[in-house]
Amino acid sequence: MNEFVDDDAGYLAWLADHPTGLVLNLRRVADPSYVVLHRASCGSIKSARRLTGAYTSRSYRKICSVGIGELTTAARREGRTDGSFSARCGLCKP
């Protein structure tokens, strides 16, 4: 499991190296109402065309993993006591 804060280059490299991985899109400050699960291949969370900082700076950070188990643990740390996600991306349908 990898967490990316202020590191878009590292985040995009992780996505490239783990195309079948999973990503939690999170607010910068833990907010249990926003813990969104995506596939690493999802176009809504990756695009080299976005401005630097669009993914892991400003208001967001990412937690990435090759397995769902680590992400349910991360969701608990974000305040989702049952380990669930506030949403699953409707675009990539993880």
Question: Can you offer a commentary on this structure?
Answer:
It is built from 2 helices and 5 strands; from the N terminus they run E-H-E-E-E-H-E. By secondary structure, it is an alpha+beta fold. Strands 1-4-2-3-5 form a 5-stranded mixed sheet, sandwiched between helices. The radius of gyration is 12 Å and the shape is globular. It has one domain. A hairpin with a 7-residue loop joins strand 2 and strand 3.
Keywords summarizing the entry:
single chain, 5 strands, alpha+beta, globular
Order of helices and strands: EHEEEHE
Largest sheet: 5 strands, mixed
Number of domains: 1
Query: Looking at the structure, what is the overall shape?
Result: globular
Number of strands: 5
Name the average pLDDT.
93
Cα Rg: 12 Å
Question: Helix fraction?
Answer: 10-25%
